[in-house]
Amino acid sequence: MGRDVAKRKGDRVHYTAWCDDEGKLLDDGTLFRRSANDFMLCCQERHLPWLLDSAIGFNVAISEISEEIAALSLQGPCSYSVLKAAGFEKAAALKPFQMADFKFGKSGTLTISRTGFTGDLGYELWTSTDRALELWDLLFAAGALYGIRPIGTNA
Predict the structure, then answer these.
(1) pTM given for the model
(2) 16 contacts: CB under 8 Å, gap ≥ 6
(3) Among candidates 152, 90, 149, 91, which has minimal Cα distance to 122?
(4) What is the pLDDT of residues 123-135, one digit of tens each?
(5) Strands, DSSP E only, in the chain?
(6) Beta pairing, strands 69-75 & 12-19
(7) Confidence band, pLDDT 50/70/90 cuts, at residue 21
(8) Strands of 99-104's sheet, edge to edge?
(9) Distance (Å, rounded) from C-alpha 40 to C-alpha 31?
């Protein structure tokens, strides 16, 4: 049984998995529905060739944006407190698996999704690569009182 993503609400994030033609699980990830016809797939490994092959015969356009977007995960029981201290207090309105755009700096935007991989309160933050260090510095200044520290997925 498949999932018809066209029936999903906009500004939502959904877990999804994809398989090869024999049904073997290739990977799983999160699918962001940014608008009616704009989706972003986030996963650990790159699957662009498989996605392009799978799109043959369908009216879709697929592009690789990994080098254009910076993503940070802010996870743990104090994650909202850090966002609030960083000026994103309206993120409190996000329900699990919901996302929204926020003003970031003088001219930028930041997409915040209420998602994560820890099983605790968490958010994922998405911006352009030229704003990544600014976001990092902002979060670490805002999170100093909460003991923020960097970790990787291998930690």
Answers:
(1) 0.87
(2) 3, 5, 28, 29, 30, 31, 41
(3) 91
(4) 999 999 999 999 9
(5) 12-19, 25-35, 38-43, 69-75, 99-104, 108-113, 122-128
(6) unpaired
(7) confident
(8) 69-75, 122-128, 108-113, 99-104
(9) 6
